[in-house]
Amino acid sequence: MTTTTREEACAAVPVPASLSGELAGYQWMRDHVGESGGEVYRLHGKPGAPDLFLKTGRDLSADDLANEMVRLRWLAGYLPVPDVRHFVGSPDDAWLLMTALPGKTACQVLQANPDAGLAVVDALAEFLRQLHAIPIGACPFNADHAYRLAHARMRIDAGLVEEDDFDEEREGWTAEQVWEAMNRLLPLSPDPVVTHGDFSLDNLLMLDGRVVGCIDVGRAGIADRYQDLAILWNCLGEFDALLQERLLARYGIACADQRRLQFHLLLDELF
């Protein structure tokens, strides 16, 4: 999605009473990137007040927002992430209100200045190393591939996988075909670290050449390091294969494990 279509102005939506006072006076923008089955709004233009992001979802999306809320609060002790202002949850829906991080997404930076690609990748690799250096003994969240496989199977059975959004090399595939191809790559020998879970260019904020934070952390937890590497590697391939090589080199991988790389690319198609 281009930077010109990622969001559009919209009317304020009805919110729980506990949020209405804080949201009064804001202008609303509907954000179309990273909605993950819910709705995302950027709130801006209130004199003397910071920009905010509001996420809302129902059913499984509500569960995802609860997961994101607890992970944001935990990750705040290690990395720059949005501050949770309010969380409202019920058996049917959830509302997560957060501060906005400064800067532009890494995707926006690359689109605006492709010549900065190597410097951007170097900054991303440094931030990824910082994330993966968080002690796994301090992380209370499991996100290994066994856990993710169970969740992926649930999404397939519930008809939640967007088959028309698969990567080009899997265009026309069904979710079941992705599932079968992925399982043919098992078993794996993972190298567990604390992962983001969706380490994409749209989820990393940059300012003055540095990564200043990450968003959409609802899948964060202990998993194979290729969980993050595969997603970022895939995103960079949309710009230049040389950036993919640079990522692996700057992260510290001399020879990529193609089996683990492909497994996590297939797994990501189901989310």
Automatic annotation (TrEMBL):
CDD domains: APH (cd05150). Residues 39-263 form the Aminoglycoside phosphotransferase domain. GO terms for molecular function: kanamycin kinase activity. It catalyses: kanamycin A + ATP = kanamycin 3'-phosphate + ADP + H(+). The keyword Transmembrane helix does not apply. Its EC number is 2.7.1.95. It is an enzyme of class 2 (transferase). Coiled coil: none annotated. Keywords: Antibiotic resistance, ATP-binding, Kinase, Nucleotide-binding, Transferase. Belongs to the aminoglycoside phosphotransferase family. This is Aminoglycoside 3'-phosphotransferase.
